[in-house]
Amino acid sequence: MAHQGTPDRPARLGKPFAAHALRRPDQRGAPAGVVLLLPRGKEVSGRPPSPVAGWASMRALGRRLARAGEPHGLAVHLVRYRRGGWNGPEAALAEEATRAVEEAVLLHGDVPVCLVGVGMGGRAALRAAGHPGVVSVVALAPWLPADPEHGAAGPEPEPVKQLASRQVLIVHGTDDARVAPDRSFRLAERIKKTNREVCRFEVHTDGHALRGYRWEVHTLTADFALGTLFGTPLPRAVRDALAAPPPLGLRMPLASGFGRVRER
């Protein structure tokens, strides 16, 4: 039975993205898999962000995923945060992501879920991966805190136990001036110690928003999501990255034009 939000506590999931402008998502059958898109957030905020801004920021990726996943029965939802900040130890966005997975399971049944997060949403996706419905995570330019200095007091390092048995893809621009790319590399190293199913791609000369190679990033995200949800063949670059020992598989360059010529 579909989960219905009440007026004071609206559902976190927006309507699924349509693969085609003239076809409504509700004209399809029951989905066989779900992607939840987690937009950017702030470090501290108790206010809900603008739903229009969140939708606009994820529109291109959402539609791309919906088109690619339509033959497989994929539903793609944007997560609407009730609180737009991480808010320190509260980790509010991770809680938002976990509740969104629960709503997706209530809405669609026992189907596999892939979390795709951008910026602070990427951190939330990685944290919420422990939900039993989640099979894979994509973190695009994830916002991660700086590691504490050696011997200095500071916050605990990002947890990785929840990522056991999950397939994980991290993508980061080498010219990201907002979040140092080495932060996601070090996190990927820690995940790789207990989980072989993690890879990380570097987008050379691209910044935090990954605008310079948007086509390639969206293609990589869609290929990874469909492969982990439905068992479609992963691109050779992803297979090579997963198989390579660190640091090679965690510093895999995302080639210009990736996805424009399909492999056999």
Helix fraction by DSSP (H/I, runs of at least 4): 25-40%
What would the average pLDDT be, to the nearest integer? 89
Strands, count: 7
β-strand percent reads: 5-15%
Radius of gyration: 17 Å
Q: Give the SSE order as H and E letters.
A: EHEHEHEEHEHHE
State the helix count: 6
Tell me what you see in this structure:
With 264 residues, the chain is an alpha/beta fold. The chain contains six helices and seven strands. Helix 1 packs across helix 5 and helix 2 packs across helix 3. It is globular and about 45 Å long. The termini are far apart.
Secondary structure: elements and pairs:
Layout: E1 33-38, H1 51-69, E2 74-78, H2 92-108, E3 113-118, H3 120-127, E4 134-140, E5 167-173, H4 181-192, E6 198-203, H5 214-230, H6 236-243, E7 252-253
Parallel strand pairs: 1-2, 1-3, 3-4, 4-5, 5-6, 6-7
Helix pairs in contact: 1-5, 2-3
Descriptive terms for the model:
seven-stranded parallel β-sheet; single chain; 264 residues; disordered N terminus
Quick recap:
With 264 residues, the chain is α/β, with parallel strands linked by helices. It has helices spanning 51-69, 92-108, 120-127, 181-192, 214-230, 236-243, and strands spanning 33-38, 74-78, 113-118, 134-140, 167-173, 198-203, 252-253. The protein contains six helices and seven strands.
